[in-house]
Design a protein that fits this description.
Elements (H helix, E strand, L loop, with lengths): L1 H8 L7 H10 L7 E4 L5 H8 L3 E6 L12 E5 L2 H13 L7 E6 L6 E9 L3 E8 L3 H5 L2 E5 L4 H10 L17 H17 L3 E12 L2 E4 L2 E5 L2
Antiparallel strand pairs: 1-4, 2-3, 2-4, 5-6, 5-8, 6-7, 8-9, 8-10
């Protein structure tokens, strides 16, 4: 895939969030609507295209822990807040070769994680589980070796202890399991079709209504 080949030629160890989501979108994995900008004069056009409320994030392949580095501003509701957030993020870039991602704000309380790891023995394996801040705390995840059939995807969703999060609960719609299964199957395809992809992390995958949307993503490349 061109975007991956070009990154490796440039010596990048991973793709930026924006580039990572371009890979996901190519494989029909739903991602946030977003615009990448490099200067304030493009900010107003981007905010009008995406619409408030929105999220601003620092975006560079060199930045992996955006929250800890003050690179994320959420629930921005007007031009004044957007300009202030843009300036703060750019000030926190520390001369990193990066830009700012203007992103739609996805509302949803259910957060999942989907990923890919390349096992030395078995090859690409797809991961699914509870996402957000609970990923590392609860470690409620399941794995399947790619390629995945639809039944594999359905089984791994039910394998996690917190699988009831996928059901209709407390006035929330049930998660669209067909879309979710397609995401898991296509994640396996990325691993099988792109040997230079070492791992992928979509966290969080937020459930908006019944639809899963990749809100943040990281593609790590092989050495």
């Amino acid at each position: 895939m061109k975007i991956i080949d070009e990154a490796i030629k440039k010596g990048k160890r991973s793709l930026s969030e924006y580039e990572s989501k371009q890979v996901l979108a190519y494989y029909q994995i739903p991602v946030t609507r977003e615009v990448l900008i490099e200067n304030e004069k493009d900010l107003l056009k981007a905010t009008q295209e995406i619409g408030y409320p929105l999220v601003l994030k620092g975006c560079s392949w060199e930045i992996t822990h955006k929250t800890e580095k003050g690179m994320i501003r959420v629930d921005i509701r007007n031009e004044e807040e957007a300009k202030a957030a843009f300036k703060e993020i750019m000030d926190n870039m520390d001369n990193t070769d990066g830009a700012v991602l203007v992103q739609e704000m996805i509302k949803g309380v259910r957060e999942l994680v989907v990923g890919l790891i390349r096992d030395p023995q078995f090859g690409p394996a797809v991961m699914f589980g509870l996402g957000g801040i609970f990923t590392e705390i609860l470690k409620d995840i399941s794995f399947r070796i790619a390629p995945l059939e639809r039944r594999d995807a359905m089984e791994m969703m039910r394998d996690i202890k917190g699988h009831k999060i996928l059901d209709a609960v407390r006035g929330m719609e049930a998660v669209d399991l067909d879309i979710m299964a397609d995401i898991l199957i296509n994640m396996g395809r990325i691993g099988l079709e792109n040997e230079k992809v070492k791992e992928i992390d979509i966290n969080p995958l937020i459930i908006s209504g019944s639809k899963p949307v990749a809100v943040d993503a990281l593609v790590v490349l092989a050495e």
